[in-house]
Specification:
136 residues; mainly alpha; 2 domains; 73% helix
Length: 136
């Protein structure tokens, strides 16, 4: 027997048609917004994942301005910190920065590795602990 889903009853059809309009509108906007990021994506390198995640986190932090929670500024800041860490990991300038500070190449290499691992660990902690709280 055919049943009309609750979503499309007489009392809810207007709201649902409005939702369909906004979903279509936002989908088309997202296509153009994400096209430059996705165009160069490759499945074989983690740096493309970092680029996609950085873009997503920056967009989410912009939309967090409209959240109605008291801690939206804290969440915005955490998202931007994660985006900056991803940007630093993708640029991979740890060796160059440590070479300027330390004359000994072994010590510079060790410190660059420690800094890189620290950024990775901190990113993992932030994402693991707060990601499910980042919703609008």
């Amino acid at each position: 027997m055919f049943r009309i889903p609750y979503r499309w009853t007489r009392s809810t059809i207007g709201t649902n048609l409005g939702s369909c309009y906004w979903d279509l509108r936002n989908g088309i906007i997202n296509i153009f917004k994400w096209l430059p990021v996705i165009w160069f994506d490759q499945d074989w390198d983690w740096s493309y994942l970092a680029t996609i995640m950085e873009f997503k986190l920056r967009n989410m932090s912009k939309s967090a301005e409209h959240w109605s929670t008291l801690s939206h500024k804290v969440h915005q800041r955490r998202m931007l910190v994660c985006a900056e860490i991803l940007k630093r990991l993708d640029k991979d300038e740890y060796w160059d920065n440590m070479q300027k500070v330390f004359a000994d190449k072994k010590h510079a290499a060790l410190m660059a590795e420690i800094q890189s691992k620290g950024d990775q660990k901190y990113f993992g902690i932030l994402i693991g602990k707060y990601m499910r709280e980042w919703w609008g």
